Amino acid sequence: MKFYNLVIKYRLPLGIALVLLGALANYLTSFWPSFPLYFVGVILIFGHFFFGPLRLIQEYMESGDMEGAEKVLNSIKFPNLLYKPIRSVYYTLKGNIAMMKQDFDGAEKMMKKGLDLGMPMKEAEGASMLQMGMIAMQKNDLKQAESYIRQAIRKGLPDKENEAAAYLQMCSIMMNKREFRAAKDFFRKAKALKPTTPQIVDQIKQIEKYIPRMPG
């Protein structure tokens, strides 16, 4: 795995070096002895621009090193050359990092680009819709937030933690709209999922204080 990651990291200079070696071998001998060098070199160069280094991000994300993940993303100079599903993931990751930096306008722009390209899985699309809803909540655009979060729930979310987060956001929106029966229903759905993420658990505890006082 580490060897494969090293190949991905240095794929472009390695590919260029092989093509140059192929040209030298071609000059000194003939085309066919140099063909393997040309072939492997071109594949490496093609892979760099078509698939990108996104696989390297996984290691950084798992260790919580967002700065390292951002450096990998910033190393992609021509995102439009990426294979379409990979380009979608690229923009989604850019949106996630912008959101973590509280750059909500930048996050919205990147997430929209990712969604417009289409997500490889419906659950991934649902998760992106949920994040778009949360961005709209941060910008106090509750109408847009509700639209995105309802779409996220319809499309499906990858796990119960995301589902619970979506229901809690809908609960907050319904409370704001004074639609208390709907707010209670969304709260029950969130609580029934028994989420374990500390922020979500804390949010449930906070809302639980007010739920019994609501009419309906």
Explain what the structure shows.
- With 216 residues, the chain is an all-alpha fold.
- The chain has helices spanning 2-9, 11-28, 31-50, 57-62, 66-74, 84-100, 104-117, 122-138, 142-155, 160-176, 180-192, 198-208.
- The chain has three domains: 1-50; 62-158, Alpha Horseshoe (Serine Threonine Protein Phosphatase 5, Tetratricopeptide repeat), CATH 1.25.40.10; 160-216, no CATH class.
- It is elongated and about 85 Å long.
- The mean pLDDT is 91.
Summarize the topology.
Blueprint: H1 2-9, H2 11-28, H3 31-50, H4 57-62, H5 66-74, H6 84-100, H7 104-117, H8 122-138, H9 142-155, H10 160-176, H11 180-192, H12 198-208
Any idea how many domains?
A: 3
The number of helical elements comes to 12
CATH architecture of the largest domain: Alpha Horseshoe
What's the β-strand tally?
A: 0
Task: State the fourth-level CATH superfamily of the largest domain.
Answer: Tetratricopeptide repeat domain
Low-confidence stretches: none
Largest sheet, described in full? none
Question: What value does the Rg take, in angstroms?
Answer: 23 Å
Mean pLDDT, all residues: 91
Q: How would the global form be characterised?
A: elongated
Give me the secondary-structure category.
mainly alpha
Named CATH topology of the largest domain: Serine Threonine Protein Phosphatase 5, Tetratricopeptide repeat
Distance between the termini: 57 Å
H and E string: HHHHHHHHHHHH
CATH class label of the largest domain: Mainly Alpha
How much of the sequence is in beta strands? under 5%
Helix residue percentage: over 70%
